[in-house]
Amino acid sequence: MDLGILWFWIVAFFFVGYFVLDGFDFGVGMSLPFLGKDDTDRRVIINTIGPVWDLNETWVIVAGAALFAAFPEWYATLFSGFYLPLLLILLALIIRGVSFEYRHQRPEASWKKRFDTMIIVGSAIPALLWGVAFANIVQGVPLDADHNYIGGFFALLNPYALLGGLTTLLLFFTHGVIFVSLKTDGELRERARKLAARSGIATILVAATFLAWTVLAHPEKSGVVIGAAAAAVLLILAYVANALGKEGRAFALMAATIAAAVLTLFVALFPAVMPASNDPANSLTIANASSTQYTLEVMSWVAVIALPLILLYQGWTYWVFRKRVSRSHIETAAH
Which residues cross the membrane (predicted)? Predict the structure, then answer.
């Protein structure tokens, strides 16, 4: 197999893992003003992701490192052309992580409210901008002959990209709210299930529109049609499972929905890695953006050894922290 093609799909795998795992983290953060009636509720909500949020976030670091090593031309064009939105994502992730650690350091309500706001904003901005960025990559952006992005920041805020951002925002929000229902009990669990039912309707409508637009833009690729159809069916099944109170099944189906949607975007992109909307001759492809054969061979051996260890450790972490978080746990810990 061509190692450039192999690493294209490995990079896709890392981004799928990141969007599935950190996606529900973002959703949990965005759910605070909707589900947190008091400070105990908000502590319960935050504690549902407390043991895993930083582990989930490392997937984007691994994805970025793999992108840098396997496709340096793609990495250079992406991070220079999309510098401002990616910087905003980075800053949002920083303030979000800081807020998780500092929120409980002082007892004043104003202190906690300030950091709660930072968690909400730090979750919503990446959830929106990741969708905007990937929609632009798939749609194509203006590049010069040296593969430099020649558009401005506002050119990235086109209708298709904004729809992509709204899609990821709603997908992650619903994914996170279902996770809250999976990890809590009592009244909070029921409120989360009802909120997921309401947000699920908007998610289905927006995601269906975005996926339909993607299919119409790539009618020659049967894989895009299949992937979009699979994502749509999985999303509807997740909505039904949540309505029936099967939050474990609903969460798994939402994870599968996000995975199918992200893979659909990579199928639409393949074999390009960054199409040029102004001149196809300026496009970056797997062939002209990848590293040398030797580099890809070394990376492949590293992946064979490290990837199973990463997956085992991730699975073990979720197994250890599999139990629900209740208000009684929080209230007991406060004494």
Answer: 6-32, 74-95, 115-137, 149-174, 195-216, 222-244, 251-274, 298-321
What sign has the CA pseudo-torsion 155, 158, 160, 165?
positive
**Dihedral in degrees, nearest 10, Cα atoms 79, 83, 85, 87:** 100
Q: 136: which 2 tokens?
A: 């632009």
| Total residues found in the chain within this entry | 335
What are the pLDDT tens digits along the chain (335 aa)?
689 999 999 999 999 999 999 999 999 999 999 998 888 889 999 999 988 888 898 899 999 999 999 999 999 999 888 999 999 999 999 999 999 888 888 888 888 899 999 999 999 999 999 999 999 999 999 999 998 999 888 889 999 999 999 999 999 999 999 999 999 988 999 999 999 999 999 999 999 999 999 999 998 898 999 999 999 999 999 999 999 999 999 999 999 999 999 999 999 999 999 999 888 899 999 999 999 999 999 999 999 998 898 899 889 988 988 888 887 766 555 53
Which helix (H) or strand (E) segment holds residue 274: the answer is: strand 272-274
Q: Give the sign of the dihedral formed by CA 163, CA 164, CA 165, CA 166.
A: positive
Which ranges of 103-221 does DSSP label H, i.e. alpha helix?
109-139, 159-183, 186-217
> What does the alpha-carbon distance between residue 175 and residue 100 come to, in Å, rounded to a whole number?
20
Cα separation, 256 vs 247, in Å, equals 14
Non-local CB neighbours of 40 within 8 Å, separated by 6+ positions: 327, 330, 331
Q: Are 314 and 58 in contact (CB under 8 A)?
A: no
Domain chopping of the chain, boundaries: 3-333
**Global model pTM greater than 0.85:** yes
The SS3 call for residue 335 is coil
Helix, strand, coil percent values for the chain (each to nearest 5): 80, 5, 15
